Amino acid sequence: MTTPQQAAAARLQNQADHYNAAQAKAAQGGPMALITFWTNVNRKLVKDALASGDRSLADRLAKHLNDFYQAHAR
C-alpha cells in the first residue's frame, strides 16, 4: 500500500471511528437523538454530493423518505 493509500485508509478509519462514537453517544439520548444523528449524517452526504455536482443521492434520499412517509402516515 502506498503512502497516499495509507493516508486514505487512515482517514476512512478515523471517520468510521468518529461516526461509531457519535452514534453510541446519540443512542444514549434515546431514539429521537439517534434519528437526529442519522438525519444529520445523511444530510451531510447529500450536501457533499450536491456540491460536487451529483444530484442522485438527493433524489434517492428524497424518494426513500417519501416512501417511508407513505408507508407509515396512514
Automatic annotation (TrEMBL):
It comes from the Bacteria. This is Uncharacterized protein.
